């Protein structure tokens, strides 16, 4: 499907209607939350188009779709709008029922949601530590806390004795936590994975996945974008 690679900002014309038989994703190329939805769209082979948004200078028409001004946002040909990354991913899994990513068993599904809650306590460190470093602050305490949280995830995987967090094939939970691990080196946090042998094996296996390969950027593009982001002038079109 046609996608607007370049981001649309304030004053831009709204895109036309969503084509029939397709779903539209409003995204930002480097956003890890929108990355979750991109992974699910690719993993399930869902026909979609993508409109990238300038998150520093949002178009008014986008704020009408999501007053929070955040990505990801999904829009259907009927004009239905869904946002928040876990909600968009669950929605896609229900509506496009072939190749389900969430388990059918209610207990197993609940386990994935619990694990996602556990992981949501880790994501702030991906921002806190680089920002503190940039301000010349001591980050050793934050890094220790992050190491402990990653060790806990590693133990969960070790107890399961499976290749992925939901079993021996990739399921929703793997895609929900992957975007941050893809960026861990860019954030300069790979050393926080010390002592997490199972998690490291999981990361290697994830890198072989077709949806992961289809949605990732070369590390020099990530690094270039994050440099502009850290300087307070994010170039959302970096590398285009």
TrEMBL record:
Instruction: Quote the InterPro entries the UniProt record gives.
Output: Glutathione-S-Trfase_C-like, Glutathione-S-Trfase_C_sf, Glutathione_S-Trfase, Glutathione_S-Trfase_N, GST_C, GST_omega, GST_Omega/HSP26, Omega/Tau-like
Q: From which source organism is this entry? A: Megalops atlanticus (Tarpon)
Write out the GO MF terms: glutathione dehydrogenase (ascorbate) activity; glutathione transferase activity; methylarsonate reductase activity
Location of the GST N-terminal domain = 21-100
User: Would I find Oxidoreductase among this entry's keywords?
Assistant: yes
What is this protein called in UniProt?
Glutathione S-transferase omega
Return one Gene Ontology term, BP aspect: glutathione metabolic process
Role, per record: Exhibits glutathione-dependent thiol transferase activity. Has high dehydroascorbate reductase activity and may contribute to the recycling of ascorbic acid. Participates in the biotransformation of inorganic arsenic and reduces monomethylarsonic acid (MMA).
Q: Which UniProt keywords apply?
A: Oxidoreductase, Transferase
* Claim: Disulfide bond is one of the keywords in the record: no
Which family is this sequence assigned to? Belongs to the GST superfamily. Omega family.
Q: Which reaction does it catalyse?
A: RX + glutathione = an S-substituted glutathione + a halide anion + H(+); L-dehydroascorbate + 2 glutathione = glutathione disulfide + L-ascorbate; methylarsonate + 2 glutathione + H(+) = methylarsonous acid + glutathione disulfide + H2O
PANTHER family on file = GLUTATHIONE S-TRANSFERASE OMEGA, PTHR43968
CDD domains attached to this UniProt entry: GST_C_Omega, GST_N_Omega
Q: Which cellular component appears as one GO term in the record?
A: cytoplasm
Location of the GST C-terminal domain: 105-225
- What Pfam families would the database entry show? GST_C_3, GST_N_2
The EC designation for this entry is 1.20.4.2, 1.8.5.1, 2.5.1.18
């Amino acid at each position: 499907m046609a996608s607007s690679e370049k981001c649309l900002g304030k004053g831009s014309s709204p895109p036309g209607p969503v084509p029939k038989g397709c779903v539209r994703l409003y995204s930002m190329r480097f956003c890890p939350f929108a990355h979750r939805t991109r992974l699910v769209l690719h993993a399930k082979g869902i026909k979609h188009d993508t409109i990238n948004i300038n998150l520093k200078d949002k178009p008014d028409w986008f704020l009408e779709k999501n007053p929070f001004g955040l990505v990801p946002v999904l829009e259907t040909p009927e004009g239905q709008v869904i946002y928040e990354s876990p909600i968009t991913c669950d929605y896609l899994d229900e509506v496009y029922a072939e190749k389900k990513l969430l388990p059918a068993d209610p207990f197993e599904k609940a386990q994935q949601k619990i694990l996602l809650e556990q992981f949501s306590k880790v994501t702030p460190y991906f921002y806190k530590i680089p920002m503190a470093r940039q301000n010349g602050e001591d980050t050793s305490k934050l890094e220790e806390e992050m190491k402990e949280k990653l060790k806990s995830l590693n133990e969960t995987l070790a107890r399961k004795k499976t290749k992925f967090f939901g079993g021996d094939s990739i399921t929703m939970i793997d895609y929900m936590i992957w975007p941050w691990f893809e960026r861990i080196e860019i954030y300069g946090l790979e050393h926080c994975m010390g002592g997490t042998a199972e998690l490291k094996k999981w990361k290697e296996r994830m890198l072989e996945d077709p949806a992961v390969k289809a949605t990732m950027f070369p590390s020099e593009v990530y690094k270039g974008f994050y440099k502009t982001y850290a300087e307070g002038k994010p170039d959302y079109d970096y590398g285009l």
